[in-house]
Write a structure and sequence with these properties.
Layout (H helix, E strand, L loop, with lengths): L1 H13 L28 H8 L5 E2 L6 E6 L7 E6 L10 E7 L4 H18 L4 E9 L9 E9 L2 E9 L9 E8 H9 L4
Antiparallel strand pairs: 1-2, 2-3, 3-4, 4-8, 5-6, 6-7, 7-8
Amino acid sequence: MKRLLLILILTLSLQSWTKADDIRDFEIEGISIGSSLLDKYNKSQIIKKKNDRNSFYYKNNRYLDIFFELKNSTYEWLQITIKPKDKNFIIHSIAGQVDYIGNIKKCYKDMKNIFSNIKKNFKPLRFDENVTVTHSFDKTGNSKTKYSKLHYDNGEIAIECYDWSKKLPYTDKLLVSVSSSEFRNFINNEAYE
């Protein structure tokens, strides 16, 4: 029932995206790329999250993912990407996350429904649908990511299911994200080399 509610809420919240002129107009939990994380959280909260054990620093510390647990929300977690040394905490990617512990097939079904709704309501320049890849972070090759992505002039919207190897300390999850072209270029060409 919780997952059905998630699909319904995401569907209704995506309706407003059809009016967006720029990918920076997309919001997840009231936050958009290109804005400052200081608009939502105070500096001490951000610094604490930067030093949290769950934070993830990308190659050469170019970017940093920090996580905020949410209560009474569409998502269980908010994943926000910033540059670690940026004093303005400009957001380069934002994602809403829902954990799918032991139910990756349900994640795939929800991903398909969300993608279909976004594609119908906000026309991308191009898209990729139901692509499965081995996650390059897991050198054993046992972790998979299945995704559908919608590409726009200055960024992309991605709906992804992460099926992590049982040997890694990560939780299988659904991620609905909005990312700038700059960050996506880094992920696609540099992050895991």
